[in-house]
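To whoever picks this up:

The nightly regression suite flagged UDP-3-O-acylglucosamine N-acyltransferase as changed. Nothing in the input moved, so I suspect the structure step. Input below, exactly as stored in the fixture:
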Amino acid sequence: MTLQEIAKTLELECDSKIEISGLNTLKDSNENELTFLENKKYIKDLQNTKAAAVLVKQEHASSVPSGTIALVCDEPYLFLAKTSKLFAPNIIEVEGAKPSIGDGTKVMPNVYIGKGSSVGKDCTIMAGAYIGDNVNIGNNTVLHPNTTIYRDCNIGSDCIIHAGTVIGSDGFGFANTKDGKYIKIYQNGNVEIGNDVEIGANCTIDRAVFKSTIIEDGVRIDNLVHIGHNCKLSRGCILTGQVGLSGSTTLGQYVIMGGQSATAGHLEIAPFTTIAARGGVTKSITEPKKSWAGFPLMDHKQWLRLQGRIAKLLK
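Regenerated output under the current build:
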């Protein structure tokens, strides 16, 4: 829709008829996308954005680059939430191409495969699986009973997804009004899963707000793991039972996380890092090949010494 139409819906002033194709971050937006600035710590990203327009407070409007239109509002994050609904895809498609099924693929009874979706060769889709619209699944992949793949998600070849797992559910995103009401931020991205990935039973991997939640090749995920929106798991990561990743967490290659460990959002963990069981990661880890434990997080050996001293105090 045009920027003028969007502004009218939001009750903002703008007469530009430039076509807006979607929403994106300040860094990743192109000349046909709309973005926003809520936190001033991203002011440099605002100054360098390529977006067609940006939702921004009056105090930051002077930092909007030339060629980008400032949509001035008092609550950019709230206005983003309202705008996200305008670009949300249909929950289901009633028209479109019939799904394609590759040679040798076995589909058991009570399976739904949506419009425009494709399943590769030699796959096994077990009873009760739901595959939404415009989903692509590679060759030799197995979906166990009652797995759910939401629309627009992609799964590579040689993957195994165990029973009850949900791929592409909405990320947990809401904006507050001044009177405390929660306004949903529609999650308009998807989930991209690489090749040779195994995901345990009853896991949830949330779709991205914009772009993709990414699970790269060779990742192993245990049962009962939650991965928030816009996370990225690099090649070979291992997440054991009940791990939780908050949104926009990036794991480097071959990170290992023990049971019930978790991360705060918007941080990065260096390659070959090990987080011991119940470790709580609240800040980015930049040094690779180290082991960490506890909460607050500390060097694993230091944590072991601390536990030893505490044990002596109790004798």
